[in-house]
Amino acid sequence: MPAQSRGAPPVPSGGARTRHTRSSSTSRYIGVSWHTGKSIWRVALTDTQTKRQRHVGYFASEEDAARAYDHAAVQARGPGADRNFPCEGIPEHPVALSEERKKRKSLRYVGVSWHTATSSWRVDLSQAGQSQFIGSYASEDDAARAYDFAAVQARGPGAKRNFPGEVIVELPVSVSEDQKQRKSSRYIGVCWHKARSSWRVRLQDPQAKRSRFIGYFTSEEDAAMAYDFAAVQAHGPGVQRNFPVEVINELPVTVGEQRNKSSRYRGVSWHKAASLWRVTMWDPQTKRSRFY
To answer: Alpha-carbon distance 104 to 118, whole Å?
Structure first.
């Protein structure tokens, strides 16, 4: 949640409001309120005839939102309307957040656009004169890589891409897929497997158009390194990796391999049902093993 800016001009009399914290969803400026769901400033202007509020726009800056209100108020009620910044003259309309995102979408990546309703980056691929929806992504970069993956799948390695130097072998996790996962991972090819209580690794096979299972791992980092090892083995050193600087010479120990091995420590054993290391100590008085 962005902090309130300091040093802004005081609110003129007649439209003054008590200064609140943002958690109260109010602003020190007329017509401005904090939208909790979108985490941005909302501007609305009350219609003097219908007594209803007219939505003006969403803004990242509280001051921009206040100036947008002034612009809308002057347009609707004339230069005598109550304003947040009466000394600035007739204000221009600041760029709304939605308009700013629309400008950004076409400047950086192919096939990526901002979807206001879902507040996410949308990926579409034009195929045979029709637009094919690929998915929605929280990150603009992930959306661009998703476009690249889909473009190569549909048009071959000569397709126009956003990252021509990268070998992208797996579709990034979309917003919907991420919401379905109980515990997501920050690494490529890694996800939490609820039933096994371990990290699962899968590698996408572009030719077979299916994912290949690599293994289950107790550590998220081991799972990420296992993905890197398998990806380099299958697609060469230019493939996209979790740890591009590290050289991984062998596959980390999987959960299955850990289960088949006894512990090198006294009193430690692998508990298969719980997928954890179990500690017990022999009690000479009760003649029983005590669980810790």
So the answer is: 17
Q: Whats the size of the chain, residue-wise?
A: 292
* Model pLDDT for residues 126-163, shown as the tens digit of each residue: 877 788 888 888 778 888 888 999 999 888 888 889 88
Q: What is the gyration radius of the CA atoms in the chain, in angstroms?
A: 28
pTM, rounded to two decimals: 0.34
Q: Which residues of 172-185 are buried (b: 16+ CB within 10 A; e: fewer)?
A: bbbbeeeeeeeeeb
Backbone phi, then psi, for 39, in 5-degree steps? Answer: 55, 45
Determine how many CB atoms are found less than 10 A away from the CB of residue 250: 8
DSSP codes, 31-68:
TEEEETTTTEEEEEEE-TTT--EEEEEEESSHHHHHHH
CB count, 10 Å around CB of 125?
Answer: 20
Cα dist from 36 to 1, 44, 220, whole Å: 9, 15, 33
